[in-house]
Fold:
Amino acid sequence: MTFEQWLRQSALPKNEARMLLQYISGITRVQLITQGDAEMPSETAEKLEAAAQRRLNGEPVAYILGEREFYGRTFAVNPNVLIPRPETEHLVEAVLARLPEGGRVWDLGTGSGAVAVTVALERPDAQVRASDISSGALETARENAARLGAAVEFASGSWFDVDRPSEKCSYDVVVSNPPYIEAEDEHLRQGDLRFEPQNALTDFSDGLSCIRALAAGAPEYLKAGGWLLLEHGYDQGEAVRNILSDKGFARVETLRDLAGLERITLGQKPQSFSDGLS
Structure:
């Protein structure tokens, strides 16, 4: 069987079949055009069929390939971490826009490290910390940071309760893409989400409990004038704005993604801060 014949007979969408073929065989797009009639080695064919079956079973292409592009860089991904989404690039841009020269950033629930590593590479003057409760996620994030040459400090724990305590009132930006899908949301049982770590997708509650925890804990670590930035669901903007406002944050607003959906809500710690609920 030739490379071109395998592509034509594959039950996968053509773009996915081509991605798997190029990744497993090492053949380039140009070579596929110019040498597509070459006979495919039997070992390659076997690996391709196994990978194609995994995809037909619903497994995300990113997990099969073990990588996903984010902000122009390739990040290793696996079932321990969420697959980085394009809309999360807006979260990175929002951080970069509010990070002063030599500033400090803490990315909580870092997963693959996509946000923390990207910020560290885009702003080498900054001090970047990343934490996660999952040991598997932290291992992946550390690997990504090392491979891409990013200077990131890592800590393990649940939100602000980590094994390497940090100084209070010392961060210019606290950022997170927390679990925000409601426990009963039907999307958790559909598509790629079936294969991604559930505790990184949902809070097993109303989708806002992690956001409440972050809004409550961030002021203790933010400098006066520092920012809390949170990614959330397209229909949660108003609820998240109310949470941040109730916790005493100022200049609360929601940013929209390229599809025009409310995606990131942020608030600033005032110079004179008092917890709105205390």
